[in-house]
Specification:
Length: 540
């Protein structure tokens, strides 16, 4: 690529959807609160060496080209990414502190305040906040990024690029970087015409293939059509609940952690997958929570479950490769074992019907048209109560991460709330623990801590059922010593406030990945190898 050659990348239809879904009250960024031991980042004054952290992030940006790019909204084309000619790392990496010693509730309040702030679309759509002042000198890193840039798996790849799987003291050299020229309106219009022409030709060729093999094509089309009709029918059937009202701009967040070994023991005793155990726990908590609120459902409780469709060859690439399951949760079933059986039946049916594929087809169809289709779909979703809850479970690495010499000891994910959705559940597996991040609208969920308590109770019920089915015949071998958790004070009461490396790679900083370009594909700067982790086995 010549130095004077313009560069841009077009957002996919799914990435554009997350832009269109954003409103002043529903901001579409995802985030993680990672808690670290101080390690060698501690200063003599008891703080955190923010300058070294900034230098480290600056050196690692070569693995994340999107972090130096911003949006441009052309008049005659779809939204695109261009290099930010005014990129300022100091704006994106912030420093904050809690009153010492900061407790868990104080950290949650501060994180909620940061998450309430929308990302500036005039700059690259990400921020990292280093929050010091926790007990024992620990600190938190709140990293938030717009959903149009990443899905859950891509977010873990970015985390792997910023962190490492071994402690490291030396800050890597910072490579020179210069923004590439932006394209002109005439170039964008020309490329847009070519893109739509190619899309039309592909549709014609697809029709020709269908005519050559009518039986197989007809069966596939009928299957996709049936799944799509079922999905669209389900979108309009969510009942009213106390947390499905129009949301405001302010948030409450809370979290908890469960051991993956306990979840796998439940799965082994009662059947299903880790995600089935998660959904069963959520269903039990929702049923108990609604009973405490004395709220009766006038229909089936509808849950959106994002499903990754990112292939192995797409790891390390930015953007979204995610589809949706629209699942009915048995929130009224009080018996934990029967509740799990009902969830297993629902998820098995969804897998058999491949409904997640039909949801992907809806977003891909917009690639043949303008962004008007996406904006209309976003208004359709935001304009009514289409679902009750989102539950997203992102597989993370089974090995610890390090920020230079500081070990990451916990990681709580955060997902955005949509209009008319005042509660959301995000999960991340990391180093043998499943971390739950719960988001609530400030007005609709003043008792968010009670929902956390309901989650704990529902999980305890499942564990008791598993122990009754498969009692231990002999004392269990001692578990390996877990990573030391944050010593953060847990208060009861109302809350005030998306990997399995090989053995050879387990001791390295990660494996190299390659970023795919939709334009300027031969640019060597976009092909810089970056660490990534294979999380394929962690969610089973």
């Amino acid at each position: 690529m010549r130095a004077d050659e313009s560069f841009y990348e077009r957002l996919t239809a799914l990435d554009q959807t997350f832009l269109a879904l954003e409103t002043p009250n529903a901001y579409m960024h995802v985030a993680i609160t990672a808690i670290f031991e101080p390690g060698t980042l501690a200063t003599a004054q008891g703080g955190v060496d923010i300058d070294r952290i900034r230098q480290h992030i600056a050196a690692r940006l070569r693995f994340i080209p999107r972090y130096r790019q911003r949006l441009q909204l052309p008049a005659a084309a779809s939204p695109i990414w261009i290099d930010d000619e005014r990129f300022d790392l100091g704006y994106h990496v912030r420093h904050a502190s809690l009153p010492r010693p900061g407790g868990e509730r104080q950290l949650q309040r501060r994180c909620a305040e940061i998450l309430e702030r929308p990302l500036d679309r005039r700059r690259p759509l990400w921020e990292i906040w280093i929050i010091e002042g926790l007990e024992d000198g620990r600190f938190a890193m709140l990293a938030k990024v717009h959903h149009c840039m990443v899905d859950g798996i891509a977010g873990i790849d970015i985390l792997a690029a910023l962190l490492g799987t071994e402690p490291c003291e030396a800050v890597e050299p910072i490579e020179d970087w210069a923004p590439r020229p932006r394209p002109g309106e005439r170039e964008l219009l020309r490329d847009e015409v070519r893109r739509r022409t190619r899309a039309s030709l592909n549709a014609v060729f697809g029709l020709a293939d269908a005519l050559r093999t009518p039986r197989a094509s007809g069966k596939a089309v009928a299957g996709h059509a049936a799944s799509m009709l079922h999905m669209l029918r389900e979108l309009g059937s969510a009942p009213a609940t106390p947390f499905n009202l129009p949301i405001g701009p302010h948030r409450r967040i809370d979290w908890l952690a469960t051991e993956l070994a306990d979840i796998k023991a439940i799965r082994n005793a009662l059947g299903g997958t880790i995600n089935d155990v998660v959904l069963t726990t959520v269903a039990g908590a929702v049923g108990s929570f609604l009973a405490r609120r004395r709220s009766a459902l006038d229909g089936e409780f509808r849950t959106v479950v994002p499903v990754s469709v990112r292939g192995a060859d797409e790891r390390g690439m930015p953007g979204n490769r995610v589809s949706l399951w629209l699942a009915t949760l048995p929130v009224h079933e009080r018996n934990a074992r029967r509740r799990l059986e009902a969830v297993r039946e629902v998820t098995a049916k969804l897998r058999a019907e491949q409904e997640e594929r039909s949801a992907e087809l809806v977003t891909q169809a917009a690639d043949f048209t303008t962004t008007n289709v996406i904006n209309l779909a976003a208004r359709l979703i935001n304009g009514a109560r289409r679902f009750n809850l989102i539950v997203t479970n992102v597989p993370g690495p089974p090995v610890p991460f390090y920020l230079l010499g500081a070990r990451m000891v916990a990681g709580y994910p955060h997902l955005p709330l949509f209009e008319n959705q005042g509660l959301g559940v995000a999960l991340l597996s990391y180093a043998g623990t499943l971390y739950w991040g719960i988001a609530g609208d400030w007005n609709q969920m003043p008792d968010l801590s009670e929902f956390i308590a309901a989650l704990r109770e529902a999980f305890a019920d499942l564990r008791a059922e598993a122990e009754a089915v498969q009692p231990s015949a002999a004392p269990a071998p001692p578990r390996p010593e877990p990573a030391r958790r944050p010593k953060l004070t847990v208060h009861r009461g109302a809350n005030p406030a998306a990997a399995t490396p090989s053995a050879a790679a387990a001791g390295a900083r990660g494996r190299a990945g390659r970023t795919r370009a939709t334009s300027a594909a031969d640019d060597p700067r976009r092909a810089a190898p970056g660490p990534r982790l294979d999380t394929a086995r962690s969610s089973r």
